Amino acid sequence: MINRAELRAKIGEIVNSTPLVDIHTHLFPPAFGGMMLRGIDELLTYHYLVAETLRYRPEKTEEFWRMPLVAQADLVWETLFLERSPVSEACRGVLTTLKLLGLDTSAGALAEYRDFFGGLSPEEHVDLVCQKAGIKAVVMTNDPFDPEERRFWQEKYPVDRRFLAALRLDVLLNKWPEAAAHLQAAGYEVDPGMTGRTFPEIRRFLEEWDRIMNPLYLAVSLPPTFAFPEETPRGRLLENVILPFCRESGRPLALMIGVKKLVNPALRLAGDSVGRSRIETVENLCAAYPENKFLVTFLSRENQHELCVAARKFGNLMPFGCWWFLNTPGMIREITGMRLELLGLSFIPQHSDARVLDQLVYKWDHSRKELARVLTEKYEDLAATGWQLPEDAIRRDVEGLFFRNFQEFLGISL
Ligand code: RAT
Ligand code: ZN
User: Fold this and answer.
1) Does domain 4-39+134-410 sit in CATH 3.20.20.140?
2) How far apart are CA 248 and CA 10, in angstroms?
3) What is the 47 CA–ligand 1 centroid distance (Å)?
4) How far is CA 394 from CA 215, 336, 379, 397, in A?
5) Which ligand is closest in space to the CA of residue 170?
6) Cα(256) to centroid of ligand 2, in Å?
7) Is residue 199 a contact partner of residue 176, using CB atoms and an 8 Å limit?
8) Which residues lie with the beta carbon below 6 Å from any ligand 1 atom?
9) Residue 354 Cα, ligand 1 centroid: separation in angstroms?
10) Residue nearest atom 1 of ligand 1, based on CA coordinates
11) What is the rounded distance in angstroms from the CA atom of residue 94 to the CA atom of residue 44?
């Protein structure tokens, strides 16, 4: 029987050393050229930090977008790190990243940080970050409607097995007129009114991109008003094409629900917000399509409890991550504690949503700390009943949370 201090240390050690699969990011491997974002200037111009900067300097909003990347990064650094203390989660994240990569944050020497990152090749950079963050693999967000991205896939880029694909359907499902025009231009026999061969042609498009990307799942982000069933192009596409395709190919559909796009358009990528969504939508889908698998995350804090309850009812529903505005230490503690209490170990606690390679370092360091904290509380409660917690039981549980639940839900081994 180990004592409390030993139990805490053991859990911390296991949570920190267990490699993980990051199931949702916006990262790309070096073969994707300029689409791969890395280094200090990209870290500083992350849209989470842009929103915080322009909050202090709203008069700079228009000018900001005309500035070159380095000048934007300088403005963020000055506004958020030099003129006040960088206490927000996104600011702290930059400092955690620098520290864990071995840089001296006490000096606040932006020029030195630029030198350090400038000296790394893309390949060295990926190796370093994956090693520091304990990453087995990351899942990308792959958009077959993005002309830049499509080019890389069609050029048969060298595969890096640490970067796995997810086929993103936002354009198809949320911007049907734009998708229809794109599909027509690419030679698919679709029409905006969805008549004739539209559905089989979209199926053909999906099959082609499925073959090219070999995605682990299909995904879409959705507004708080998303309903199912719904008499909209999105509802019809889900029912007639996406759900049958997912079911027959065995691919889960990831639903990321609750984003209000461009509440402040002047902020561009930083201008999206959150709204409370309807759990009934997920219940309807899980009940009506028992053979389909759904990975689900909600953006609003208010939806988290009902998502846990819904997941108790449906084995084909896998809650995942503390998404975007919920990826803060306080929210991770609250949501993970609730999930453990209602779902045991049958969920995927976190994804990073990293857009810049280096963010893997801080996002996972911060998340691992909170997960260790919450798990420790739960194991202490168990230990108080006399239940034995040998090291291999804890390791098994953490591996479940960090990659096995995902693998088993997909039905594959990564
Ligand atoms: O977290 C983010 O960076 C958001 O801008 C979105 O990309 C969101 O995560 C999404 O996948 O739609
Ligand atoms: Zn994302």
Assistant:
1) yes
2) 43
3) 10
4) 31, 16, 9, 5
5) 1
6) 9
7) no
8) 26, 141, 221, 256, 324, 353, 355
9) 9
10) 324
11) 7
CB neighbours of residue 174 within 10 Å: 19
Q: What is the pLDDT along the chain (414 residues), one digit of tens a residue?
A: 568 889 999 999 999 999 999 999 999 999 999 999 999 999 999 999 999 999 999 999 999 999 999 999 999 999 999 999 999 999 999 999 999 999 999 988 999 999 999 999 999 999 999 999 999 999 999 999 999 999 999 987 788 999 999 999 999 999 999 999 999 999 999 999 999 999 999 999 999 999 999 999 999 999 999 999 999 999 999 999 999 999 999 999 999 999 999 999 999 999 999 999 999 999 999 999 999 999 999 999 999 999 999 999 999 999 999 999 999 999 999 999 999 999 999 999 999 999 999 999 999 999 999 999 999 999 999 999 999 999 999 999 999 999 999 999 999 988
CA of 241 to the centre of ligand 1 (A): 25
Query: The whole model's pTM is what?
Result: 0.98
Pocket test for ligand 1, best of 25, 324, 355 (most atoms within 8 A of CB): 324
Closest CA to 309 of 282, 285, 330, 331: 282
Q: Whose CA is nearest to atom 12 of ligand 1?
A: 221
The tokens for 204 are: 């053909």
Ligand 2: distance of its center to the CA of 299 in Å? 11
Spans of all domains in the chain: 4-39+134-410
